[in-house]
Amino acid sequence: SIPEANFNGLDNYLTRPEAWKLLLGKRDPSDPSCDGTSAPGAIGMTSPDYPWPEANDVGVPAYPLTGAQKAVYYRGFIAKRPVNIRNIQMRTGSTILGNYEKNYEVVMTNGAWENPRNFIETQPALPPPMFENRANSATQARTYLDVRRTSGSHYQGVPDYDAGYLTGTLNETIILSRFDAVGGMLTSGRGYRDFRSDEFSVYNDLDYKNISVIRPSQVSTGIISEPVGVGTPGIRIFDIHGKDFGLRAHASRHTARFGRDSNE
Q1: What pTM does this model have?
Q2: What span, in angstroms and rounded, lies between the C-alpha atoms of 264 and 253?
Q3: Is the CB of residue 59 less than 8 Å from the CB of residue 36?
Q4: What's the mean per-residue pLDDT of the chain?
Q5: Among 8, 15, 186, 236, which has the minimal tally of Cβ within 10 Å of its Cβ?
Q6: Is the peptide bond before 3 cis (omega within 30 degrees of 0)?
Q7: DSSP readout, 100-134?
Q8: CA gap 16, 142 in Å, rounded
Q9: What is the pLDDT of residues 98-154, one digit of tens each?
Q10: How many angstroms from the chain centroid is the CA of residue 195?
Q11: Which helix (H) or strand (E) holds 185?
């Protein structure tokens, strides 16, 4: 019998898969070959399709037993072993008593960069400009320069692409390792981390921290981007007047303490 096969009191040889049959029997004492006082017995191991007396219809060859369920697959291990040990998972409502619930209780590894399951199983269509000229080893797709790509006819360095593959099937064996220096779109947003594992962001570097608030390349006066958009292109950092001026622009003109704009 196969231990993994679920069974109940209604199972028989027609419904329960078996790997073999163990047959026990003894000779009829009335047989002339018996001495009348003892009945010699026998034990035999047969294949699961060995017939029962009533197994097949009249006129049908008794062997093989075509109605018998056969267990022909290995129990997860091909090599023979002196002991039979296996981890069994417990599930909600299961009547099978197991020894673990989550995969990481049995096997676990850290780092999606070394084990990029979502990237392998669901290959994304990455924008060609990511790998042009000298950028053949790029790890970042979306950058700060493309945040406002839909506003004011701004130049689009890398076209948008579907990052849905990063939210594929949950994996309970590979643990992601992430570090967000200050949080925010550039360090926590999908697509702004590396496209392979969704773990690392170049904006965790000290030189790029709070770059969306500081706005180092913005002049103190002039046109500001429109506060409209969908998704990450529509994200804006506003000052106390609701205008999209960064700290560098405020610090370059007359301001109150800590770069607060005293004049609207």
Answers
A1: 0.54
A2: 12
A3: no
A4: 75
A5: 8
A6: no
A7: BSSGGGT--EE-TTTS-HHHHHS-----GGGGSTT
A8: 56
A9: 888 888 888 888 888 888 888 888 888 888 777 776 666 778 777 777 776 555 556
A10: 16
A11: helix 185-188
